[in-house]
Design a protein that fits this description.
- Helices cover about 45% and strands about 30% of the residues.
- By secondary structure, it is of the alpha+beta class.
- The protein is built from three helices and four strands.
- It has a four-stranded antiparallel sheet, with helices on both faces.
- The chain has one domain.
Length: about 130
């Protein structure tokens, strides 16, 4: 038994080192998955926030953003002004409601991106 103990300790030590070298990326992916689930639980509160807003609003997705270390949501709004329809796509922070990116056809709104493709790239950037 005494001869076996050092070998067991060495195996345990090597196993701990091996798992910790692989663990950060797996742990990060697992953490991000869990955070994503927690963010999605906030959907009813976000939808409730926009229930009385002017125009049609749709929460397309809620996700955890490692880049912002926060929950973000994608809001699509459609407004009818003088029989013309305008739309806005926004990436917002759930907790601060700050607009991080926007693409809009509304004449009084300044977009942070120039087209829908660029907006999609921004979504992917915030998700990864």
């Amino acid at each position: 038994m005494q001869k076996l103990l050092p070998a067991l300790l060495a195996i345990l030590f090597l196993a701990a080192c091996a798992s910790s070298s692989v663990e950060p990326s797996a742990k990060t992916a697992s953490d991000n998955f869990e955070r994503n689930l927690e963010c999605q639980k906030l959907r009813p509160q976000v939808e409730d926030y926009f229930s009385d807003a002017r125009g049609e609003n749709s929460i397309e997705s809620i996700f955890y953003s490692p880049k912002q270390n926060s929950c973000l949501y994608l809001l699509i709004s459609v407004e009818n002004i003088s029989d013309e329809f305008f739309s806005s796509w926004e990436i917002r922070d759930v907790f601060t409601n700050k607009v991080l990116e926007i693409f809009s056809s509304l004449p009084y709104v300044t977009s942070t991106v120039s087209n829908v493709s660029e907006f999609q790239e921004k979504i992917e950037e915030y998700q990864n």
